[in-house]
Structure formats: structure tokens, C-alpha cells
Amino acid sequence: MNRRQLLTGAAGVAVGAALPRPSITQTRTKIRLGHLHVVAVDGQILTGLDRGAFEKRGIDFERSEFNTGPEVFAAMAEGRLDVLSAGGVISNYLALGAGRAFLINDIEIATAQLWVRPDQGVRTFADLKGRRVATTTKTTAHIFLHRALRANNIDPSDVELVNGSMADAVASFIAGTVPAVALWVPFNIRVREALPDAIKLVDASAFYPQSAVVGGWVARTDYYNDNKEILGNIIRAWADANDYIVRNPAAAAEALQKNHYRQASVSDIAEALKAQKMFTSREWRRLYVDGTVAKWLQQVSDFFMTDAGITGAKPASEYFDPDLYLSVI
Fold it and tell me: Is 97 left (phi over 0), alpha (psi -120 to 50) or beta?
């Protein structure tokens, strides 16, 4: 079972008649879109496709699904994608100059979780000292693990980090190779089913809003510079889907499960949606204007750059453009 077979949390909200809309676009524009198949990332995409929101704006996605953020950014660097949607990893690659962010999906408020095995002598944070912890580095789970350790007076250097794909990290935890794993939703479902006695020590909600991690949309720099009108139409269609999910979470969860997440239950999708912090498109506008979004992006970039020992990285004020969203919403 890989990440495509799992789910995640994300969310959205619908703009409908609340926002003035330009005339429906007749010209079709093909856009190469890469994204992770997890609710926190593709919830608005899939809902928008089901509702015809992107079609109404003349957007014709050529979609490619990826298992991790580093994979989808590699595809963009190779010129295989025009835009992408991913989680907290965007703050790493954008700080290194890998595109421009123009749209935020949600805050991954409780998608990252730390699980331990009491049968291997780990029940508390203190028990983690000197032990192995599996995760996927340069992701939301990695950020969360460091913050959780430090918040509980454990220096990250006091644990042995085992890096791998999340599917492999969870498999090693279930097999007993490691006594702890920092994962993201919905891999927690796999752990619960396989190890009923495993303990969830904490999830990322314990560190919100001081340690908010946001995910969103990124365009290749050249595509961003030359296609503002097209990106604006993506935002309009996204807003319709996003606001619909926010206002109709039960119906949205049912549709996502039925149409796109057959391996999960409706309750799994509902749980995934609750693991994200979502705002209506108008509420997001306020967070763009007052600099909150840029602050959230910057604090995650700071983590990645410090961890990698990189100086002179691009600040969020340069790699994130709020003006395109504000001109549309």
C-alpha cells in the first residue's frame, strides 16, 4: 500500500454567488499539473473537477500524481510540469528558487503525528532518547518531529533519524524495525489497524498557530511570468471548490470517497478533512493581506534552511506572490 492508496486531510470552501465572476471562458487551456494524491493537497482539485469549476474557467489539466513533494518538484525542475500542488515541502524548494507560490490550500494542523510502540519500551518522549525514529525528511512530518522533540526538551540529535519514503517508514514501524515513526495522515490509519496498542504521543495541532505549516500551489517561474491570466482562472475555480468543501464538509467527504478515494471509508475522509485548518476564500484574503501567510511560509523555510546549513535563501516575501490572489478574490 503506497501513498496513492491512502488519504489525507485537506479542505476547501465555495465562492459561488458571493463573488463576482467574469464571463465563462470558452477557450480551453491545457496545463500540466503535478500533485500528491492526498486530501490535504488534491481535495480542492478533485472537488473542482467534479463540480466543473475548472472546466468553466477554460482549464484543462493534464494531471500527474506523485507520492512525495520532492518527487513532484523534481518533475517541475525537469520541465515536465507547469504548476504543482504539494504540502509543507513547498517552503523548502521555493526558498531554493524552485518557482513562485501563488495559492495556498490549507494549514496541515493535525496531519503530522508521532507514534510509538510501548512493546519496544517507548511510551513517552523521554523514552525516545537514543532510539530510532522513522520519517521522510524535508516534509511536514520532518518539521513536526523536530518541533515536537524540542517542545518536550529532547534535542533532535538525541534520536537517530531513519529517512525513507513514508510507506517504508510506516512499514518499518509496523514490522518493529523502529520503535517510533513521525508520519502524516492517512498513514495513521494503517498504524491503527496493524498495531492497536501503538500510542500516538502528539500531533501537529499541539503547536498551532505558532508552528503552522501550509501547503499550496507553485508555478514554474517562467510559466508564472507569462501566464497570470491563466493562473487567475485556476484561483477562481479553486475558490469555488474550496468554499464548497468548507461549507459542506459531509457532502464533500462523501463525494471525494465515492469518486476518488475508494480504498478509504467516508469517515476516513471526514477525519482527514478535520486534520486540516481550512478557511473560506474571503478569509484567506485577509491572511494574505496582513502578511500571516508569508509569515507561516517563512518560518518553515527557516527550519529547512537551518537544517541544511544554507544561507542566502530566498525569503517568502520574494517567492510568494499574494497580489494575484488579491486581484481575483
Answer: left
